TrEMBL record:
It comes from Streptomyces griseorubiginosus. This is Ferredoxin. The keyword Electron transport applies. PROSITE patterns: 4FE4S_FER_2. InterPro entries: 3Fe4S_ferredoxin, 4Fe4S_Fe-S-bd, Fe-S_cluster_ET.
């Protein structure tokens, strides 16, 4: 699975970090970012939930888990 965050859309709501804390965090400005080495989501099933929770749809998850 591949995860992309559209930095132009992100408003820093933090829903992704709440939904999938093993994949997402927030940078010093409060915007969403992936934890180091997590661009593939580590096949974390919560990555898709985090994308759904984003109020501005800034997160795209493609591919399959596992």
């Amino acid at each position: 699975m591949h995860i992309d965050i559209d930095k132009d859309l992100c408003i820093g709501a933090g829903q992704c970090a709440l939904a999938a804390p093993a994949v997402f965090t927030q940078d010093d400005d409060g915007y969403s970012t992936l934890l180091p080495g997590r661009a593939d989501g580590g096949a974390d099933p919560m990555a898709r939930e985090a994308a759904r929770a984003c109020p501005v749809a800034a997160i795209t998850v493609s591919g399959t888990a596992g």
